[in-house]
Write a structure and sequence with these properties.
about 250 residues, single chain, mainly alpha, 9 helices, membrane
Length: about 250
């Protein structure tokens, strides 16, 4: 962890941090308003999919800023949506339904939790390799296997460290990815798919406070701490994106 902290940089990405926070704010407003509405469950699920697809495009845009290259061709954007659609299908269409069906089968639930943990660990690193290939107009069929073979260990080690760090902090603060009641990989995976941005916990508590007409003054300390943690998560995650880019740039 000390090695990770020593490699953090802020000044070179501060503009991207601000941009990321703005995009998080816009996404979270839309998501929280949708969640609070009394709309039909199928319409809500459809809107969640749309928001998730848009968030993948936002993440792709942030990657272009970090890596200082861009490719916004129709083909590239379509591939971004296709990858996110595959992720949604795996997480919501397959794993979530299997968990509901196998809820009373301990052995199968263990297998599903392991599958969810695997997806949780590999999806973002693979996504970054995929985005890097798109942004730099690589031959994806050749580039992705090569990048995975050469860099998977370093990328996964740092990403696992980042995940553990976030889960520990959320557990201590009561965040959305808390493991206080046990580590549920499938639940965290679903949460990361639709609420996996740094500021979601802070905005959710703020939204709930306003909805229930709580005194924001009485919630100030809690909101302030959650905002700082969200900001810190943002810095960590953007540094990881930068780290992946530096690895792939060296090829």
């Amino acid at each position: 962890m000390k090695k990770l902290m020593s490699k953090l940089h802020f000044r070179s990405i501060y503009k991207t941090i601000v941009l990321t926070l703005v995009l998080c704010f816009l996404y979270n407003i839309a998501y929280l308003l949708m969640s609070a509405s009394a709309m039909n469950v199928y319409i809500r699920q459809s809107l969640e999919v749309v928001l998730s697809l848009l968030s993948s495009l936002g993440f792709y845009f942030i990657c272009t800023k970090i890596w200082k290259a861009k490719n916004f061709s129709a083909s590239a954007i379509l591939k971004v949506f296709v990858l996110q659609g595959i992720y949604i299908l795996i997480v919501s269409g397959i794993l979530s339904n299997l968990v509901n069906v196998c809820a009373n089968n301990t052995s199968l639930m263990l297998v599903l939790q392991l599958m969810s943990a695997f997806c949780l660990v590999v999806m973002v690193p693979f996504q970054l390799i995929f985005y890097y290939g798109l942004i730099h107009d690589k031959n994806l069929k050749e580039f992705i296997p090569y990048a995975l073979k050469k860099h998977q260990k370093k990328m996964l080690n740092w990403y696992c460290t980042l995940l553990i760090f976030i889960v520990v902090l959320d557990t201590m603060s009561g965040g959305l990815f808390s493991a206080a009641q046990g580590f549920n990989a499938q639940s965290i995976l679903v949460g990361s798919m639709y609420m996996g941005n740094p500021m979601i916990s802070w905005m959710m508590y703020l939204f709930l406070g306003v909805s229930f007409q709580s005194s924001l003054a009485s919630m100030f300390t809690y909101l302030f701490v959650n905002f700082l943690m969200g900001f810190f998560y943002c810095v960590l995650e953007l540094n990881y994106v930068s780290y992946v880019g530096s690895l792939l740039d060296a090829d």
